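Lab meeting, item 3. Inverse folding demo.
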């Protein structure tokens, strides 16, 4: 019994260390899933008037598109994000779609981008295929 105690402690430390490095999959930059439209407008600088209602009943589905301000493409400090589309279900953010500037990502493979995003935000999950 005394011989197994250090093993149990070691396994517990290893497992708890992995949790410390886990990415929070409920956020992208300053945007957190389940946030309200108003809080996303405040965080992104988008205009609330730009929100589009796609569906109202039985649930309200809205989208809000944020576009990056114009910056000279030669500026290496410029953010590569071109635009972000936020989708809300009953005023709760449930999807964030990010489009990157083609010129800022030129030469990168899909694997390069997936690795880069995965390093910062965790392993990607694939969306289910839509039925024809």
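The presenter then showed the designed sequence:
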């Amino acid at each position: 019994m005394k011989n197994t105690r250090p093993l149990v402690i070691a396994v517990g430390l290893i497992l708890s260390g992995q949790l410390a490095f886990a990415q929070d999959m409920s956020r992208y930059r300053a945007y957190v899933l389940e946030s309200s439209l108003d809080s996303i407008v405040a965080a992104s600088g988008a205009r609330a008037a730009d929100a589009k209602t796609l569906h109202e009943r039985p649930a309200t589905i809205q989208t809000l598109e944020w576009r990056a301000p114009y910056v000279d493409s030669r500026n290496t400090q410029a953010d590569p994000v071109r635009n972000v589309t936020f989708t809300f279900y009953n005023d709760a953010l449930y999807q964030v779609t990010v489009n990157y500037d083609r010129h800022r990502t030129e030469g990168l493979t899909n694997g390069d981008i997936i690795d880069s995003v995965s390093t910062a935000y965790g392993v990607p999950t694939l969306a289910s295929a839509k039925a024809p």
